[in-house]
Amino acid sequence: MSTRFVGEFPKNMAEIVDVFKRANKRLDILVDLAAYGHYSWPEEFERYAKIIHDKCEKGVQVRMVVYSRERYDELFCRQFPKDRFDEEMRSERFKFFFHKYSGLSRPTTWDAFRETITNEQRVHCQNMLKNGVVLRSVSSDVLMSLWLGDQTDAVFSFQNATEREREVSFRTRDSDLIRSLQKTFEMTWEGGKDLARAIAV
Questions:
Q1: Residue 83 gets which letter from DSSP?
Q2: Could you tell me the fold of the domain covering 3-194?
Q3: Tell me, what's the pLDDT at 97?
Q4: Of 61, 86, 91, 110, which has the highest C-beta tally within 10 A?
Q5: Cis peptide preceding 81, ω within 30 of 0
Q6: In what order do the strands lie in the sheet with 61-67?
Q7: What is the pLDDT of residues 182-191, one digit of tens each?
Q8: Where are the domains of the chain?
Q9: How far, in Å, CA of 160 to CA of 166, rounded?
Q10: Using CB atoms within 10 A of its CB, is residue 166 exposed (0-12), middle (13-18) or buried (19+)?
Q11: What is the pLDDT of residues 144-199, one digit of tens each?
């Protein structure tokens, strides 16, 4: 099949990494956060970030569009409502994340949690820039995430702004569909703000 379902977030990340591995010339990424999956599946994010780093070192052009800082703040409040923070602290992902990154102080308030996660996003955004990723930001909603490799292979996701775990993803090698996805990326890229000097996520 040229297009197939590859799972809900974060189980889609293995397929995204595979698209990255196969790219030899260019990766184009349209996503809400530079550190995609960092909180929900940190181990897979480390693989995701490493392959981007490795591709940059090999001369692969990597372009990425992410949310502006202001837009990210709005998204965070929707994905992690303040009145559900007690529930989030009891979740397995919260426990695992702060166990794995034991150097981070485990937050006991929603404000501290937001500051910690936002700071982590900023650090990973800076790392992407240092590695050679060309980053731009947008302030409007990104309703579809894209990971395009060499314009021949792609994963695309339809986002649920309030419950990320229901974000559904598909992988495609359909040339007509990939051309359409590439046009979506290019239009968003053209409207983005350069993050080479002013980092925002």
A1: G
A2: Endonuclease; Chain A (3.30.870)
A3: 98
A4: 110
A5: no
A6: 3-8, 168-172, 153-158, 144-149, 26-30, 61-67, 134-138, 193-194
A7: 999 999 999 9
A8: 3-194
A9: 6
A10: exposed
A11: 999 999 999 999 998 765 554 578 999 999 999 999 999 999 999 999 999 865 54
